[in-house]
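dumping the sequnces here before i forget
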Amino acid sequence: MNFELTEEQQMIRQAARDFANTELLPGVIERDEKQEFPKELLNKMGQAGFMGMMVSPEYGGSGLDTLSYVLTMEELSKIDASASVIVSVNNSLVCWGLETFGTEEQKKKYLTRLASGEIIGAFCLSEPEAGSDATSQKTTAIDKGDHYVLNGTKNWITNGASADVYLVIAQTDREKGHKGINALIVEKGMEGFELGPKENKLGIRGSDTHSLLFNDVKVPKENRIGEDGFGFKFAMKTLSGGRIGIAAQALGIAAGAYELAKKYSQERKAFGTEICNHQAIAFKLADMHTEIQAARLLVYQAACDKDANRNYDMSGAMAKLYASKVAMETTVEAVQVFGGNGFVKEYHVERLMRDAKITQIYEGTSEIQKIVISRGILDR
Ligand code: COS
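..and the predicted 3d for all of it:
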């Protein structure tokens, strides 16, 4: 067992740390308040190579391993979880899904531009009545020979407004259940495709989350990913990897809050000494540090499983379940260490606390992760 990162992985982590501090930290509070993510910052993330990290250089990506991606996610999330969710969706859900299951034509047409960050993508599975129960898709993609006709609504879509390419999961043949579902590539601007309202959120407020409306949208057959009826498995396989990215995001949020709390506790004085000298605070730091390291090991293990071509459904679910719990608990404790200042926006920890919550919900709630883990344990 080797716990050392390679020199290249250490450099990638340092580059992401530098980028987060120089590019993401300025303005992070304002972006959260105004619920916006400027296009120029998106472009900078593309130029830094964050948008197609695991994509092969043949398609404009960086060709890195999952562990390098996870290290980057961790560093970006310490500072700005809104930026990191944009990176995560584009990398693990959109680019990975297209590179692994797309046709050569689809890769040439879409993947190259997505991987460079020239355009970004969105993954559209959730609906008003189908989030966790992903087989109950109400959106329909009716087969019309050379194209599908898409109708329905998708909800809570990350990158909803800023994306140009949308991977949409829809039901073609209800009688076939999950085997009648397809995944289609939909482009912004296709007739009948409209943006619904923007969500006003508790956390990750810098990233845009929208509902999407499809009204008789004609999608060419060549935009289907995989064989007819592969859509549900496409979604499940893609989300399995996505969960590693979100686990890394949760880890980064926890680590970011911990680092801020540790620093503050070494500066803030109460009862004649820095508050870290009070056991009440020192023990909080000890718990946070231990829990974060435990989460980190689970996240890195899941990434290594993926890199080694081992099954990562269960290890990814465990990593997400645990890291998101640690993110929630650590950020609440970090606010407590900051006391009254923790409740004030300029100290950042209240934002991290709000951002942490979504990691227990999206790309499969904690309860869904327990279904995946228990099925894995019981071999079902
Ligand atoms: N990889 C590949 N195939 C998978 C898979 C995975 N990770 N998970 C399930 N499948 C396959 C199953 O093998 C089964 O195929 P066969 O019938 O050929 O054997 C098929 O998919 C249906 O699986 P299952 O019967 O387990 O489906 P369920 O309806 O019971 O759902 C859960 C399983 C709950 C795990 C699934 O619906 C899920 O992950 N839901 C959460 C979705 C989610 O993350 N939503 C958030 C939206 S994205 S922000």
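The radius of gyration is 21 Å.
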